[in-house]
Batch of 4 targets.
Target 1
Amino acid sequence: MWVPPKMPNRITRVTTKTGDQGSTRLTFEHSIYKGNDILELVGVLDEANSVVGVLVQYIDTPFIEELKRIQSRLFDVGAALATEVIQPYWQRETQHVTESIKELNAKLEPLKEFVLPGGGKAAAFTHLARTTVRRAERVFWRYADEKLRESGIGAYLNRVSDYLFVLSRAIAETEEIWRPLKE
């Protein structure tokens, strides 16, 4: 069983001024440039987590626990990047999300065309969360070394964005279908 490394209190103060010159620390070992790809990924994961947090404010109770689980896993991805310690449970988490997708999708009408993002406030925030997670996934694959590519994290991010798409359909007040441009 994987046991996380014992970490000291990580947030003893927020303003350190160490980032004022364009560098920061992901671990206590070394400083890195804020324009580094890994920080782009950590940042977009933070954005995705924040958007899911907004979504939680507008969604019905049955989905809140799943979304909070996703938020915690997004933090775990960031921790894996910062510490270079990759937890071995990503395939399990991906399978969990896959099962959640199947349950939600079984209750929906088959999709015949692309759906326009929207469908009410909660559904619109779900689409925003989906696209932010998709961006995190793209940045992940740009950054990922062999160890990360094999970790299952990329598949997890892909599945989470799939889940958010199906969730958006499940909670939509209305579902508007794309009307392609025609002559």
Target 2
Amino acid sequence: MEVCRLCPRECGVDRKSGKPGACGVSGEGVMAARAALHMWEEPCISGETGSGTVFFTGCPLRCVYCQNYELARGRAGKRITTERLSEVFLELETAGAANVNLVTPTHYTPEIVRAVKAAGKRGLSIPVVYNCSGYEKVETLELLEGTVDIYLTDFKYMDSDMAARYSKAPDYPEVAKAALGEMVRQTGGETAFNKDGMMTKGVIVRHLLLPGHLKNAKAVVKYLYESYGNQVYLSLMNQYTPLPQVRETFPELSRGVTRREYERLVDYALSLGVENGFIQEGETAKESFIPTFDGEGL
């Protein structure tokens, strides 16, 4: 943490000194804002008992339209030790969680590896899910080999201009391609489920359709299918919710996705031959789907 280069920003900040990195956080231990059962992930992740989500404070990508805007910018959460984090994992399993789901974990990778190892020595037996933006360094992901069972990753952009405008990351497409390749390598390109239909190993790639950006979405789906076929599961999401921070500066994002836009994306995926995936039905663009970051479970 003295010269932090865990994420592709490679800011080199001494986070231990109290100066925040590109992720927006600093200091010893980890910052998190919620640890609780979560029912709103893909069916094979949440199931009927819920996914044991731990929402970490800060984010290396920090998209302008982020649904967890305040959290991503380091404005919510409490500091806990690595030891406490391992206890949280065990408490989530005791509560019936189908898995431990690490949300925006990149900048805490070393602490997470230690916490999972410690929890494993005390009996943690449920899968570990790495739930990230896709903006990951291969070298950092390599630290997770043997720790993570399921990668639940975004693939946001094939358009560098979009990535620059909305995430200040024009290198996102190439970074995400390399990161996904490492995730697939670690899982062997295989997917496994238990008798209840819950995923125990594999890669799920999410794409959140943004209003007016169907061309980018199709390019993402095309790349994923042509590169990996049915080795990865696709999760096509229509739940984009326009929040106040975008309405003046990014007016093109001030509406939700239309049914027609989303149907065209799903039809395109099917036309390519995509078989393994998830789609969303009904009204999902609601702020009520955004958790309250009040320190629950920490």
Target 3
Amino acid sequence: MAKLFTSILSTFFVLIFLSTANGQGFKRQQAKVGLDLSPEAAAERWVEFSSSKLGSDYCMLFELIHRPRKSEEIKYVGYMFGAERTDGLYMRLRIAPASHPSNSEEFIMKNSSKGCDVWKFKDGKFVKLSKADWLKPLYDGLLYTPFDLLMPYKFWNASYIGAGRIGQAVHLFDLTSTDFPFDRVRVALTRDFNVPAQIQLLGKNSKKTANLGSVKKVDNLWFMREASVKDEISKDKDILRFTHARFNIILPKSIFDEVSQKNVKLPELKKL
């Protein structure tokens, strides 16, 4: 199994970096589903995933296509910064409709085993959001939420369900919390690389599924190029795709301070 180099994001998703030092690269395996893990092996896999580290500071541009089942698709664009600091993993994100790029929303997020936080830019400053607000869309009408990007369930107690298959061999874990209004989060970690192939939020009247789409190698790192999330009730879908990136950089800490200003300057980026 390739060792996880880092995982940080989204849709319930993970922006995935895999260590090229393993000499394997990324590929979907077509092997048969394996046996269930022992309790000890399952616990070890979850700890490896939840304690993954970031390979480098980064900046990326993305496009997000919202595809409602019964109306025309809407395109959003934005940027994302990320870095690991001594007190946790940080992300800063800006998103706006492609047709009105000045009408943006901006967030700062912190992911840590000691606690997670989300700030949103309001009235000229970043304001800390309540956990209930983590479940609201990044932009009105979208499926993506701060919760999806923050992935606080990485630090919840995980119950191993067993081996399965979702296009490839996986191991399934369920996670629950009394802080959020859904029954459980189900994470399918790939057998061969121990990264999420699929993540679901499951509630009594709701079901939201995120899937890894594709990966790409840039600056000697593998990362998630594309992912999607679907509301299984409405059948609406969001597709997240990164278009430009820059890794192996050092970002100033001020980018992730809640006292920082909106619309920070972007470094020179490479088209993907």
Target 4
Amino acid sequence: MLQGKTAIVTGAAGDLGNAMARQLAQNGAQVAMWDIVPRAQAADAIERVGAQDPAVTYAEVDVRDRSAVDAAIADLAAVDIICSNAGIVEAQPFLELSQDNWQNHLDINLTGCFNVCQAAARRMAADGVRGRLILTSSWVGAIPWPEISAYTVSKAGVNMLVKQMARELAAHGILVNAVAPGIVDAGLAGRQLREEPQYAARVAKVIPLVEPGTPEEIAAAVVYLAGPQTAYMTGSILTLDGGCSLFQFDA
């Protein structure tokens, strides 16, 4: 389905990004993995994608560093699909929220998406490529969740960035959409589910479909947004949250 396409996945050493990279490769894309993690520490993640795409590449790229992003884009022979997925979430109650915590979320989760997507869109426009920009948002970009104000605000910004880019890039045939996962059993949320009973109890009450999502489910949605079925779709936030964002009534 994606044969002949080159896809960049940021945050590709993490659970969610690695699932995206693997499924894009399974569907024929040549994958360029980007992450801030040193290559040696990402060896297992690279190997998993390499099992599907022997030509996979890996670059240590900090999405906050625009010059590094531009250089990594320039190193590729082509750019067709972007999965702007790199992000962080670090919980702090609002009254204790530090300036560093706030700024780190905005720098990585929002400005990082801007850097990657603008650099890629410029390349696509120059090459005449009708590309796809796919960002990772979150259900909490529209619904507040306790103790992650910096994260929720950064994802709300991602949602508007998607719509703004979609509006302006349509003239170039570049489609821009996002996936908005709910609570996924991966990364920080996965650790909290295993190690923090209070968090697990809170989660158990807010997912109408009961179970947390999986990285594979989110990655499948990314492949859908990258494929021919969504050639008339732009500016959309595709929510996969098991119903988390639905208003909760007491039974």
